[in-house]
Amino acid sequence: MNIEIIGKPDFSLAKVLLISGESISAESGAMVAMSSGIEIDTGMRGGIFEAAKRSLLGGESFFMNTFTARNGGMVLLAPGAPGDIINLPLNGEIFVQKDGYLAGSPSIKIETKFQGLGKGLLSGEGFFILKCSGSGVLLLSSYGAIEEIEVNGEYIVDTGHIVAFDSTLNYSVEKLGNWKATILSGEFFVCRFSGHGKVYIQSRAVRPFAHWIHPFRRVKSKND
Amino acid sequence: MRKISILHKPAYAMARIELSQGESFLVEAGSMVSKSAEVSLTPQKVKRARSGGLLGAVKSMLSGEFFLINKAYSNLNGHILVAPTQIGDIIEHTLKGGLIIQSGSFLGCDDEISLDGEWQGARSFFAGESLFMMHARGQGSVLMNSFGAIDALDLDGEFIVDTGHIVAFEPSLSYSITKFGSSWLGAFFSGEGLVARFSGKGRLYTQSHNLNAFGKFVGSLLPPRSS
């Protein structure tokens, strides 16, 4: 399998070249184009229970498409939002923010993990996170450009800017400082990582953008 | 030694500010993406508040007497990453005296720089833009973000800019708000509305896109909100 990512970081598109017999799984809706000889298998990865959990709780698609090239071919994949894609060859496990998974080897296991009540409530990013494990290719996507940070000790990230992080890292969600500083700084809750490993962050967050656009909507009138 | 690098230009630009022990840098409230644990963020007031305490601070903030920015201070060597909410570029400007910045375009500056919220008077109110501009004075670097691409123009004479496209300008330039074209009817139907007429000699930064126009365009396509 050969993966080339073009249009980085603003409008990334992954060109996945498959040789005979190879396959790649992708989030439903991620396919942009593909060679005609490719077989598509739409299924619920990990069975109906895991698929339901992933879609209801993890915010990922219920169905996943697996593309298999019987005689070689190409699949073009892109996420819904304009942004970056990174190719992370996985050998072990990594935690991925719920919208971050784009595609990966079918052998990679994707589980929906409960982050804990406190982390879920405070982060504003939901109670669940995806845990990807196994070995193979893994493509992650973001809104904004992705920056890789090597953590050695402690590191602080705004909760809306996390894409993924190594499972070797511990994390907690906390206020930025005391209450006054938290309210006045405009930063609210942050994620404190500790240990050794990598954190992948995105240079924009989609939620603040959605909040910004909201007041531009027309106000509902009685006739609507 | 404080070092600024701008990553992922132009659409998803993000600024990385490396600080040595004891150094500090001012950043826009809410702009932090991530930081080393050694870097602390403390809210700072720009303009004086009338009353003390948290409630007083919030009240004054709402009434526009001052606004808050964060001071990033490094106890050891560390860094902070900052980015604006919107898609667009970031530019570093080295101050030569002063710079007047449209408040939404301010992203950060060296701690030695003094900042004031400057009332732009009725002219900016009628232009539909923010009432305050930030006036940066002193020596050092200022970081600005733009909606879209950013363009630097060194003016000598007169120049006209749509008010929604102003990022910043040097105070050596004077400006007045005027209608686009010669008649009010034309100004209304041209879609340009009010423009700023700059004159003098100095640097002007403009952005390729108008944030308010984009908001109105997308907002009109969304289902109505209940409140």
Beta-strand content estimate of chain A: over 45%
Q: What is the mean predicted local confidence, pLDDT of chain A? A: 87
CATH class of chain B: Alpha Beta
How widely separated are the two ends of chain B? 49 Å
> Averaging pLDDT over every residue of chain B, what do you get?
84
The low-pLDDT segments of chain B are 48-52
What would you note in describing this structure?
The complex is a heterodimer of chains A (224) and B (227). With 224 residues, chain A is mainly beta. Chain A has four helices and 17 strands. The mean pLDDT of chain A is 87. Helix content of chain B is 14%, strand content 50%. Chain B contains four helices and 17 strands. In chain B, strands 9, 11, 12, 14, 15, 16 and 17 form a seven-stranded antiparallel β-sheet that branches. Chain B has a six-stranded antiparallel β-sheet with strand order 5-6-3-10-13-8, with no helix packed on it. The N and C termini of chain B lie far apart (49 Å). Classes of the chains: A mainly beta (224), B mainly beta (227). The interface between A and B is large, with 46 and 39 residues.
Topology of this structure?
The complex is a heterodimer of chains A (about 220) and B (about 230).
Chain A: E1 2-6, E2 13-18, E3 23-27, E4 31-34, E5 38-43, H1 47-56, E6 64-69, E7 73-77, E8 85-87, E9 90-96, E10 101-104, E11 109-114, H2 117-123, E12 128-136, E13 138-141, E14 146-158, E15 162-166, E16 170-175, H3 179-185, E17 189-202, H4 206-213
Antiparallel strand pairs in A: 1-2, 2-7, 3-6, 3-10, 4-7, 5-6, 8-13, 9-12, 9-15, 10-13, 11-12, 14-17, 15-17, 16-17
Chain B: E1 3-7, E2 14-19, E3 24-28, E4 32-36, E5 39-46, H1 53-62, E6 67-74, E7 78-82, E8 90-94, E9 97-102, E10 106-110, E11 114-119, H2 122-126, E12 132-138, E13 141-145, E14 150-162, E15 166-169, E16 173-179, H3 184-189, E17 194-207, H4 211-221
Antiparallel strand pairs in B: 1-2, 2-7, 3-6, 3-10, 4-7, 5-6, 8-13, 9-12, 9-15, 10-13, 11-12, 14-17, 15-17, 16-17
